[in-house]
Amino acid sequence: MPDRFHKPTLFPGGMFEAFLGGEDPAQISRVAHETARALLARVRENPDSEIVDRLVAYTDQHGIDAIAELWSRSNAKSLPGALWRIYLLRLLIRQDAEGTAYLYQRGSEVLSSIDTVVAGAPNPTGPAEITALADTILRGLFEGDFAVALDRAAAFCRVAAAGAASVADDRDTLDSDRASELTTRALRFTRFAEELTACARLWRSDSLD
């Protein structure tokens, strides 16, 4: 069982896996879905900017523990699963804004798709721009088009994955361990992109629960 995190939480960049626990899975799932639905419905019905600001910055003040306990073990293609992934992505970006911006910028240079347009980060993309993008995407869940926010997050992941894979190729002969780490990061970003895209599709068909 992984160590518990305590604030200030530094969530290692390579850890995309859910937390493990011994509680009743059915109860955990029920609580996760109920809290996700209640939070989202309440805020989206009255998206007060001050409340949204507090929700966006929640993990900055309280760490990732509470959100992880609520949502991290939820199905990837569910409402709590989607919320968990967006919060986790934001935390990962903020903890290494320079490194993430570098991967994203590289990805935007090597990827031939509209993902950079969908994600919406300025070009060139530095630490300040990538951090602002993370906040904008999370805010979009509460006060914008939920599916669009998920699509933007998925596009970000695809660009970052392409960047990580490209840098891994560069490092392969010089530092195989680092290259392997970046390849793993690229695969995890790709998996997140697939899951978030599926969640956006489910939301549009009113099927994301």
From TrEMBL:
> What keywords would UniProt list here?
DNA-directed RNA polymerase, Transcription
Q: Which GO terms describe its cellular component?
A: DNA-directed RNA polymerase complex
Q: Give the top-rank taxon of the lineage listed in the UniProt record for this protein.
A: Bacteria
Q: What is this protein called?
A: DNA-directed RNA polymerase subunit beta
